[in-house]
Amino acid sequence: MLVPVLIAFVILLKSEHHLALRNPLSETQRLFTSNWWTSDGDTIGRRDRRRQLGSAMVPDPDAPLEVQVEVSVEHPRRRFRKRWIPASFVRFLWFCSALFIGLMCFVLGEAYAEVYLRTLPHANIETVVYVYSWVATVYLLDGITGWMLGGGEGERVGSYPLGWIFKLYFQLTYQTYVRALYARLRSPSQFAILQLLSSSFLIIITPLSMTRFVHRLFVLVGLNGQEYSEYKKFVGRSFFLRGIAENVSMLAFLGEVVALHFGSNKDAYPYFSFSDPDNPYTFELTFYASTITWACEIAAGWVVRRIMDWAFQFHVTAEGTADLTSWPELVPTSL
Length: 335
Hints:
Elements: H1 3-15, H2 35-38, H3 46-57, H4 67-83, H5 87-118, H6 124-149, H7 160-182, H8 188-209, H9 212-220, H10 228-262, H11 283-312, H12 316-326, H13 330-334
Helix pairs in contact: 5-6, 5-7, 6-7, 6-8, 7-10, 8-11, 10-11, 10-12
């Protein structure tokens, strides 16, 4: 997944394009950028470049008298060229760092799952510790990546659509590995405990995080510099993307369980075969408990939407739809 970025990085360094002035971006190249991105001082238009070249070709009768002056000016320019790095290249480096953290989150998810499966069976408290240590890891990496990408002009990358996509990616990664855990829960009580904690945190923490008090607290400690209206939209966007990730990941998980359990290639996937009658992990428990969990998640999401609508006059679905309308490229990118 990193190969295209590595190739672009090598080409930039080898040809020193990152030290050169660039032409204005086309409409296609402006996808997932802000106006600030396309209005930097490191860009020179073709018309201005032709004008400079044309003026340089006009003969000057006094040119021999200025040879020494030109030579003396050229050396500082060369030294400046070696030090100068365009803002667009700096943003490219920030984007590469964000992409690396996103892939590292995926690798950590694989490591978490491997550790959990190698230490079966687990008690309820061990399952809770596993899940919420994974949740804390994902949200930490998501926060770092969100800071790198920014959401407004003048920030590191400064691309709201890119922040939108990366937020969805982290939510999907978080939910995917939690769903895979469901196939190794031994009793309905483990499903119930996890869902009770998840729904309670969602209904309580999400509305609290949208309050002015929490916003002022984040501003005071330097974790957020947004206006309250922007911060409120940021929290609502995160909840909107969480809902998408929950529904998509659960639907994919249930389909995967059914296809691999009843499919002809189930012998190749013993994790979902549930063929051992003495094994406490059964298809019926996994499928029906996961379906009930999905229904509880939908109900908890509905409650949070009503709270946001009533207490903060924030319409989650309307704001999410407005984002997709403003940036239609988000739809194919999300898929």
